[in-house]
Amino acid sequence: MTQPLLEIKDLHLEFKTFDGVAKVLAGVNLTMQRGDVLALVGETGCGKSMTALAVPRLIPMPPGKISKGQVLFEGQDLLKKSPDEMQRFRAKHLGMIFQDPTTNLNPLFTIREQLVDAVLYQQYDAHKVPAKWRFSSSAKTIRKKAHERAIELMNLVGIQDGEKRLSDYPHQFSGGMRQRVLIAMALAGEPDLLIADEPTTALDVTIQAQILGLIRDLVQKLNLSVLLITHNLGVVAKTCEKVAVMYAGRVVEESSVKDLFKNPKHPYTQGLINAVPTQHTPRRGLEGIPGLIPNLTQAPEGCRFHPRCPRVMDICQQVPEARLLSAEHKVYCHLYEDAL
Amino acid sequence: MKLGSYFLRRLLLLIPLLLGLSLLTFTVSRILPGDPVGLAAGPQATEEIKASLRKEFGLDKPLPVQYFSYIGNLFRGEWGQSLYSRREVASDLKVYFPATLELTLAAIVFAAVLGTLLGVVSALNRNKLPDHLARVVVLFFVSFPAFWLAMMFQLLFGLALDWFPIGKRFNILMSPPQSITGMYLLDSLLTWDWKSFRMAAWHLFIPALVLSFGALASITRITRANMLEALDKDFVRMERALGMPERVVIFKYVLRNAFIATLTIIALEFGWLMAGAVLVETIFDWPGLGLYIVESSLRLDFQPIMGITIIYGIVFSLVNIFTDMAYGLLDPRIRYG
After folding, report:
1. Which fold has domain B90-293?
2. Do B333 and A118 touch (CB under 8 A)?
3. What is the pLDDT of residues A190-249, one digit of tens each?
């Protein structure tokens, strides 16, 4: 097997709060191959966004603290990099888009200023050359090239009149258009991995479909690898090939999307999929999972789902190991045995 | 140009504002109890002398007539005479006002530059040593009365260390730079008089520094608070995620967001500094408006009081207009309406 693009191994993340230490991530394991489009799903507060932010090391520390684990990108541990190295790494290899396009663009600068800077720092290593580079003649040509690239990116993400609209400020764009701009900025350096943290949650349904369509197109055109964080199983089914389900700071099941919907194994996943209304759901019959997500400062021992699990056993007091049901289907539950 | 027409409109609006201001000051200064004519004429003056003085200054006429003739004269450039010294108010203002303006401008520049810098450093090192240090130093200086600090600085830098002169605007043995604006620093720059510039700056430094401390504290605290707020915004995380270096994120993208609130404080503090310059001017023997204001108000000397009020009104309004224009330049969402 080739070296995975991204491998998160036993990642533990804690936050100091007034109520004690919240163990937000308690041993996340996740593997992505180059070219994968992987969805990370789970309820609010299950740690999916924290996992996404831990990869580019954008979690403020303190109060956050990574107490254990590794984040391997093509074999190199990102957690061991210095802040400077990490900043360059982000510029070269990662792209990120976030949930709310209205707050993720700086309101005081034109799109040109922000997009050209994105190109400069991601493609042209602008940080290598200190302030004086602005005034040299080669800087001028680089700036011109970056500007051309910015126009190209605007076209790539489907903004009409890209060149003209570069002079506009963020407040002159609609939400969907802003998200397109943000995607353009994230893709400026041709990243190896695009991390999309709920990219459509804050948008209207029609715009959601457009943005998802755009991401799908870009995956094909640019051969992108995408880690898509969402709580919307519909988005997963439409956009991704693989999916990982998270519950209370751990991945509980990893599989292909088809297999997961047809044949969910973990009791939590089963509950989650049963909770999705279908055409055949009777009018007053949406099913939920009984109980509440645990308080992460006093998380349950062992499998964190066991207090809510309909098929709980004594052994669930211990943390379950990964069981391989097939080459593509992994579940962290004591109900199953390795099939391979 | 949009900005130009906005500026012109605001300038026009200044006229009714100043008329109102002058009417208010005029009325209040005449209604106040006290006999300025008696003060000016001296204790031995007879009623006839007082009456002739009143007649000379037009104080025997009804108040509305007095007011309108004052305003009429103002438009002709006549600001009236001091009851006491018989000097033209306009020529007094021409001497004193630039000195105060120069001192205040220098102080506000110190406070703005130093305060913004300290605020940014504090915010970036929140609750760490530099933050605490900046807080303590700034509060230390703002907690002492300005006149006490002024004297201490005079003693330390003027006498003990002998680094700076203990007072005055310029070396009394030298002639000041050719007068264009009356502000020595600016005049010497305009005439490329490097020697005068150094001399003026050398005299200006300590008084301006002492005067700036009051504003420094609030500018530092406001900048710190707004930097912290701006650093928490989503777009900062986005810019970091794009791999931009910290210095670009902070000094290009975040600072501008934080600076809008700082600007408001700077404009407000400017007014306070101008009014508060009196003490500093007295201690450093700075020939500014300070003493002139105090003496005129104690003697209820109408004409200088009116003149000073109008000048202060103009300066304060102009500062506000420029601040409003700067908002628009900093934040594209603010339109000039």
Report:
1. MetI-like fold (1.10.3720)
2. no
3. 888 999 888 888 888 888 888 888 888 888 888 888 999 988 888 888 888 889 999 888
